[in-house]
Amino acid sequence: MIIKEMTQQEIRELLERATIGRLACAKDDRPYIVPLTFAYHSVFLYSFTTAGQKVDFMRANPHVCVEFDEISATNNWQSVIVTGKFEELTKEPDHIDGRNTAHALLNKSAEWWQPAYVKTVIRDHERALEPVYFRISILETTGHKAVKSE
Questions:
Q1: pLDDT tens for each residue of 44-101
Q2: Rounded to whole angstroms, how far apart are CA atoms 34 and 28?
Q3: What is the pTM of this model?
Q4: Is 112 helix (H, G, I), strand (E, B) or coil?
Q5: Range 95-104, long-range pairs (CB < 8 A, 24+ positions)
């Protein structure tokens, strides 16, 4: 097995197929990572969640990264890292197009709103279901893949 860099075309193709990514963010020198549903379009990743720790972290520090993987075996995998900047898509007029785009893209996957918008109980307290649409402006992408050695 050899690990190689992916081309930008291979990275784009993986992002177009991927639905689940691991969002990494940080606040006050504390990292946080969580899986979320994403939709790739042009220079953005779109997503939907509810208010909570990840949203608090991204509002405080908009610099994030997202990892996407396709793994079929220990010697057959691809992994892409997207580095970017969080932008919340509020109900303000200048965000309406972005929210509509996010909804249209995410809605192409069955049950796209789960697990973000289901009843959640943490430490015996039910979390409020406050929807948050957002997008990540893609600043950089990198990718690696395992290939059979020749």
A1: 999 988 888 999 999 999 999 999 999 999 899 999 999 999 999 998 999 999 988 9
A2: 17
A3: 0.84
A4: coil
A5: 98/46, 98/133, 98/135, 99/133, 101/41, 101/46, 102/39, 102/46, 102/47, 102/48, 102/133, 102/134, 102/135, 103/48, 103/133
